[in-house]
User: What shape does this take?
Amino acid sequence: MDRRPGLSIRLKLTLSYAGFLTLAGALLLVAMGVFLLRSGWLRTNESGAVRENPVIQFVRAFVPTAAAVMVFLLVFGLVGGWFLAGRMLAPLDRITHATRTVADGSLSHRIRLPGREDEFRELADAFDMMLAQLEAHVAEQRRFAANASHELRTPLAISKTLIDVARADPNHDTGELVDRLHTVNTRAIDLTEALLLLSRANQRSFTREHVDLSLVAEEAAETLHPLADKHGVTLETSGDIAPTTGSPALLLQLITNLVHNAIVHNVPREGTVRVHTGVRPRTVVLTVENTGERLTPQLVATLTEPFQRGTERTHADQAGVGLGLAIVKTITEAHDGTLTLTPRRAGGLRITVELPAASGA
Ligand SMILES: Nc1ncnc2c1ncn2[C@@H]1O[C@H](COP(=O)(O)OP(=O)(O)OP(=O)(O)O)[C@@H](O)[C@H]1O
Ligand SMILES: [Mg+2]
Assistant: This one.
């Protein structure tokens, strides 16, 4: 940024120190002069033989010394002030240096200001903390971009292989080719739509409306009933009216993703899914609980990361893109809520989403 040149803080501080010291010295000398003039010092001299005006006599004797003292104070103030200001401002140099290093792209740099707690230390620590968060965030974004590109490349590469094989063999069954291309294409579209949804929820640019979570949960359950039947899963919804504010479309997506997961990542036979809504003093809570494989807390902690798929032995037709829970997390955060995943002892998961209750509820 271009700015007009100005005095450095060090110089300003030095001038202030020296100025104050000189002013204080001058006041002291004036006070001393007045005091001496009025006191006996003058009178004792009055009795002397010299006839010169005693005031002039006093001024002659006092002023040169006073002036010398003033000059000394000024020089002392300037030198001492320059030194002290330099010492006081040294941490600022370090912080500026760190900022420039970071601006050059080195996010791993830290100030690590030594010494006891003071205002500079507080600033440096806050800066270090901001850098750590920024670094983690950038790393996460990079990982996400790499994963997304990789995931998008897979269906495209499969399509290419299918087309190449069909081209090399003129007697190839085109019906089968079209079916397989259709499947691969659908998967690429699903993935792109999930990515778009994720970025939309991330932007928080939706309008907030009054939403009853229990109604949204019922709508999601109704839509997914056929899927539950297909998987032999019993789907139950229960609970109270749970009024909150947010985007009805995004909240429907959130509950749909959770219930969909609870159905497809369930036990092969006679699984159950329970969806419950409830109200707490300041929040509303949605719980989705399902039977399923046993999961370790370590694995569960990673499931909300984008493109993370928990179990390897998912069937090809139900293998998702691994964005369902990442979308749930982003939508929850965009609604200022909290998402908790807990493995159930008997297997399966319990997921709770806690959102702020609608004001006035
Ligand atoms: N209710 C659940 N019970 C057991 N495991 C689950 C449950 N929900 C998610 N998981 C595990 O977490 C992983 C990530 O879920 P997520 O919804 O993010 O991706 P996905 O279901 O694999 O794909 P999609 O993006 O199509 O939803 C799943 O692959 C599954 O292993
Ligand atoms: Mg899913």
